[in-house]
Design brief:
The chain is an alpha/beta fold. It has two domains: 138 residues, no CATH class; 147 residues, no CATH class. The protein contains six helices and seven strands; from the N terminus they run ααααβαββββαββ. A seven-stranded mixed sheet has the order 1-5-2-4-3-6-7.
């Protein structure tokens, strides 16, 4: 890679900055509208519609009973001439009332059936857009800040060129401004690499025998789900993949779904029926007394119903550790502690 960049127009950087800001705002507005619509639909499905159709069932049931009574009365009493009266009209009204009652019952049944499905689809949606939301709220503002520093450095350089590049005090000040701007850019991009070693100690402190049965299928996960593109990248991971049997046990830290950063580690276990996998929070201290007071046990299939994106992760062998945050897959370590994810070509 060359050590310099060719900049033809500082105005182009300013225009790009403006476009980035507008894009981030458009994303935030769109996501906010979607969140509002989802919340409105959830309230309607969980409270308003069940109440309405339950009331309709009661009312329509009463109408059906009245129509049945009208049919009985018509057939029970004879006409003034002594003949049996025709109940054709009453029977017609009864069929209409019964059909309307069946419609109301079907509506309520569908509401009860689709409410959990909406909750699940909402969880999937939130996981899918989490990376976009993170980009709009943090990545793009960071990029805008770096663009501002780039423009500042370039303006200082151009001002130095116009002044003739002399050695007077103003020229020295321009050099200092440019050095400060470049230094701030480098400092912003030179963040220390996080240490994931303590997570293994966290897993080791978990007593797999004391785990209690749990179910996370209806929970809403705060971390970002692994994208389809990232799932495809697991094909490039050179490992002896061993997908667990879906009926095997898997452990999840209670409340892990509320975390913005989770990790999965597979450990060696004795006996059959245990996949060896543990899913825990990666955003809390890993001291021994910080381990969850409650660990949930469930079949692998149950977790996959809520997090289908983890299927490739769960195929990794013993000793592997994966970290996922709101931006998706963050890090992947093999059984020797080597970080693999950063080395995988993303193109």
């Amino acid at each position: 890679m060359s050590g310099y960049a060719r900049i033809d127009s500082v105005d182009a950087l300013r225009m790009f900055r403006t476009v980035l800001v507008k894009f981030a705002e458009a994303v935030r507005v769109a996501l906010g509208d979607a969140e509002g619509e989802i919340a409105r639909m959830q309230v309607e499905l969980e409270t308003e519609l069940p109440t309405y159709w339950s009331g309709q069932i009661r009312k329509r049931h009463e109408i059906v009973e009245k129509c049945k009574d009208a049919v009985r009365q018509k057939k029970l009493f004879k006409s003034p001439s002594g003949s049996t009266q025709s109940a054709v009209e009453e029977e017609k009204q009864l069929r209409i009332a019964q059909k309307r009652l069946e419609e109301a019952e079907e509506k309520l049944k569908n509401i009860k059936r689709y409410t959990p499905r909406l909750q699940k689809e909402t969880s999937i949606y939130k996981g899918g857009v989490q990376r976009l939301a993170t980009s709009a709220s943090s990545d793009i503002p960071l990029a805008v800040s770096r663009l501002d520093k780039m423009v500042q450095a370039l303006e200082a350089y151009m001002a130095m060129q116009v002044s003739g590049g002399g050695t007077d005090d103003s020229s020295g000040e321009l050099f200092q401004r440019m050095a400060r701007a470049l230094g701030e850019m480098e400092a912003a991009s030179a963040a220390p690499a996080p240490d994931y070693g303590p997570l293994r100690k966290k897993t080791a402190a978990v007593d797999r025998k004391t785990a209690v049965p749990g179910d996370v299928r209806a929970e809403q996960w705060n971390d970002g789900m692994i994208t389809e593109k990232e799932r495809e990248l697991f094909n490039k991971v050179e490992a002896d993949k061993k997908p667990p049997v879906e009926t095997d046990k898997l452990l999840v830290a209670d409340g892990a779904w509320q975390s913005n950063k989770i990790y999965l580690e597979r450990v060696a276990v004795e006996g059959e029926g245990d996949s060896g996998w543990y899913l825990g929070r990666a955003d809390t201290p890993a001291e021994g007394n910080e381990t969850p007071t409650k660990t949930l046990s469930m079949p692998v299939a149950d977790l996959l119903q809520a997090r289908q994106d983890l299927r490739e992760v769960l195929s990794l062998p013993v000793g592997y550790l994966a970290v996922i945050d709101t931006g998706g897959m963050t890090a992947l370590f093999d059984d020797k502690g080597k970080e693999l994810w950063a080395a995988i070509p993303k193109q």
